[in-house]
C-alpha cells in the first residue's frame, strides 16, 4: 500500500534543484518531440503558411539543408508531409517509388542518417478530391484504402523511413500496414498511428499547410469534433 500524507511528503524531494532533478519522474526534452515538416515539390522558395505564422512549406530542393539545420539545433525526429503536384483519384503517387513520399524519406535519411524520419501515411494530400482514401460515390472505400496504405508504407520504408505514421483513420489500418511491411521484409519498421482525429475546424491551418483540397467532409471516419456544447453549459442571460 502506498503511504499517504503525512508519511509521504513529496515536497521533501523538491527542496532544491539537485534533489528535484534526481527524483523527477516526468521529463520533457527534445527526445520527446517530433518536428512536422511540410515539403512541396516543384517550387523554388519557402512559402509561408498564413494560418501558422513562422511555419513554411519547404521546397523539396531545400529539404536536405533544412534537415541538417534541424539536426544542428538538436532535433532528432521529423514527420514528413508532402504537398503534391501529382494528384489523382487514388493518390497513387504515394506508392510510386519515385514519388514524393519516397523522395522525402530518402532525402532526409541521406542528409542526416541518424534523424528519425516518420512518414505521414495518408492520401488527402495526393488525391484530387482531398479525401484520405479511395472514394466510392461519396463514401470512402475503407478496405481498398487499407490495401493502398500498405503499398504506401512499403514504399516509404524502402526509401528509408524509420516510422510509418498512418493518419487516414481507416478501420484496421495498423494491422494492414503491419502485414504489408512484414511481407515486404520490413519487420523492423515501426508504426505510430495517430490515435484520434477530429472532424474539427481546428485542423484548418494544418489543411492549409498540406494543401488539402477536400470536397465534402470527413465526418464518416474521424471522431466527433470537440464540441463545447457537450461539456459546457451556457446559461442564458436573464
Ligand atoms: Zn488524410
Low-confidence stretches: none
* End-to-end C-alpha gap: 52 Å
Task: State the fourth-level CATH superfamily.
Answer: Aldolase class I
Can you give the mean pLDDT?
90
The string of secondary-structure elements, in order, is HEEEHEHEEEHEHEH
The oligomeric state of the chains shown is single chain
Q: Give the overall shape.
A: globular
Number of strands: 9
The proportion of residues in beta strands is 5-15%
Query: What's the total helix number?
Result: 6
Gross CATH architecture? Alpha-Beta Barrel
Radius of gyration: 21 Å
Q: Which structural class matches the secondary elements?
A: alpha/beta
* Relative helix content: 25-40%
Provide the spatial order of strands within the biggest beta sheet.
2-3-1-4-5-8-9
- Integer tally of domains: 1
CATH class reads Alpha Beta
Question: Which labels suit this protein?
Answer:
238 residues; alpha/beta; seven-stranded mixed sheet; 9 strands; globular; binds zinc ion
Question: How do the strands and helices of this protein lay out in sequence?
Answer:
Blueprint lengths: L16 H7 L11 E6 L6 E2 L7 E4 L3 H10 L4 E7 L16 H12 L4 E6 L13 E2 L2 E2 L1 H18 L3 E4 L6 H11 L6 E2 L12 H7 L28
Parallel strand pairs: 1-3, 1-4, 4-5, 5-8, 8-9
Antiparallel strand pairs: 2-3, 6-7
The chain binds zinc ion.
The site of zinc ion has 5 residues, from loops.
How does this structure look, described?
There is one protein chain. The protein is of the alpha/beta class. The protein has a single domain (27-229), classed as Aldolase class I (TIM Barrel, Alpha-Beta Barrel). 27% of the residues lie in helices and 15% in strands. The chain has 6 helices and 9 strands. It has helices at residues 17-23, 63-72, 100-111, 142-159, 173-183, 204-210; strands at 35-40, 47-48, 56-59, 77-83, 116-121, 135-136, 139-140, 163-166, 190-191. It has a 7-stranded mixed beta sheet, covered by helices on one side. β4 (77-83), α3 and β5 (116-121) form a beta-alpha-beta unit. The protein starts with 16 loop residues before the first helix and ends in a 28-residue tail after the last helix. It binds zinc ion. Zinc ion binds at residues 122, 124, 132, 167-168.
